[in-house]
Amino acid sequence: MTTVVKQKSDVMLNYLRPKMKFPSVWCPGCGNGIVMGAFIRAINKLGYDRNNMAVVSGIGCTSRMPAYMDFSSLHTTHGRALPYATGVKFARPDMKVAVITGDGDALAIGGNHFIHACRRNIDITAVLINNYIYGMTGGQGSPTTPSGAFSTTTPYGNVEKHFDACNLAIGAGATFVGRATVYHYPQLEKMIMQAMEHKGFSLVEVVSNCHTYFGRLNRRGDASAMLKEFKENAVNITKAKTMTPEELENKYVIGTLYVNDDKTEFCDEYHKLMDVAQKRKK
Amino acid sequence: MTETNQIDESRSRSKPQSKYDYSKGPLPLEINLEWCKACGLCITLCPKQVFETDRNAKPVQARPENCTQCTICWVHCPDFAITSNYK
Amino acid sequence: MAKNKRKLLQGNGACVQGAIYAGLRFFAGYPITPSTEIAENCARFLPQVGGRFIQMEDELGSMAAIIGASVTGMKSMTATSGPGYSLMQENIGYAYMTEIPCVVVNVQRGGPSTGLPTKVSQSDTMQARWGTHGDYNAIAVAPSTVADTFTETIRAFNLAERFRTPVTILLDEVIAHMRAIVPIPEEGEYEIVNRVKPTKPPEEYIPYEITENFVSPMPGYGEGYRYHITGLTHNTLGFSTNEPEEIVVKLDKLKNKIDKFQDEIMKLRVNNMDDAEVAFVSYGSVSRAALQAVSLARSVGVKVGTIQLYTIWPFPYDKLREICSRCQKVIVAELNMGQIIHEVRRALPEDIEVLPLQRYDGEILTPTQLLEKLEEVL
To answer: DSSP character for A51?
Structure first.
């Protein structure tokens, strides 16, 4: 069997980086690959010029993704993807900038950068792949590990409470917030498209499977079993509005949770400021 | 094609499920076995039970006539190992 | 020829004017005494010249943002003081590894920790060399006057672009807050260096190609070259590697690009050293006191000279040995408990006595103190 890719059905293969080793470093069945496929197909459908796009990531399993995709890619330090992306976007507002990040990367070590990127409403799309655990370092508890869940650093169950990344982003001022799962692929792809098209800070939280650690330590089974669990426990936002908090316990509320098109975007505002400053100089 | 395991006949439907006619052309899907990590997602997610596993737990198109080109297997393949020959 | 413009500027202001002259168009920072005026000046002047200023949420973010801006091809800078410089070390290391040019101004204050926010110090000298983890080669420059700050800032940008590396400007609180008349050069009066862009087409471009001078051409994002930048140890293609040979090639590149071209970086001011038996070695604001002390000592016939280090890192071992070859004693004057003195000791042969003059109470070293030390050692 040859690794030379035959171009028939899937445009996404055109976007894989030449000279990069495939298959990826991820475990068999890892949701990261599904999200990467969705991201690429979304960009392709939007018809963006890939020379005018930057993908930035931090550290973690998820953050290895930009290396595989044929865009300008920046694999940075742990938690700092958003400030790096802020630098890229602010310096080149015409570029499309996306950040691929994980739950530990964005919400623990990068929590401060996350809320401030939301607050600025800078036109960056953050795809936050939430697998409820630290994968790369071997299954430690993360800020999204549910209370009571097991990880290698919570061997008796997690005594802490967890973050809801979407609510956090809405509270901090993000103007497009949505959640999808790796099972609900069409929705995921569409949501990434909407987020990329949205002017302002957009967050797509993707509920994903780390069956290697989270699944194994919490008896959730393999990749297939975890995807089935997402299917069974996902509730669309329109239906969720009719449900009680008790009914919504342990459910994944998916769909576009929040959109605000009225808020001004950071780079636009700065351009107005530049005009003012240059007039005053004269 | 790789050697197949025994096919569970009871799961196979009597009538072909697809509007596509695969009898003259290639198989409905092309599977890149070098990239496939045998996670099993395509096999369990396929609504028409097109796949069976080979002895390496990688997918084999055991019931190609059932394939409706619904996209589920290739969009969920985390390793981009499945492409369609018809879409 | 038109007479040069002159401006009354603070050290921090001169730094910003010098940076804009050198092509600074992106500043990200976080307020911290005594560097805050640099951020304030950038917020005011950068948008006037089409540049961008952003106040980030912390120093980690500031350093990250200027690196992000630099990969698009924009000249970028941040400014901070000791505590912020410690926070920036993580991403400064990233810039060393990925070879992204940028300038970091550290207006030194007393430490460790929050230390002495409003008092002068030179105690980050070693941090500028060894601040972040791992093996790398660092460049740091240290101006001693307000006018110097203008020109050394230009030099720092030129070095960053020429060597594709972060460059630290070690200011200290005294120069940063001092006001003086600074000549403002005309456009073109000083050479401005820009990073080398690739000439090969994108499909043949190798991001970390080993060139003759070990510096690889660097396109900006959005210029048609799609390549990968990672803080992981990478091969010439820019992809992470665990291959022993490729790791050695990368780390040697970081070392050689600076080691083998030190002459382009070195800058010292040598004063009265031809017949000097005793020499003061100093940098930053202390150099001013040293010059004054030497002129007073010379007026009564003492054979003393000064060596001022403009380039602190890489350290001028060979040059110092050459200049001090006729000295019997060398006094290293610095505002810390002894940092550069160790390098001077390493540079000089054992028969030259190297003596410390250190002050770390948050006050400046005065010419009188230098003269007292001179009397003591003579």
So the answer is: G
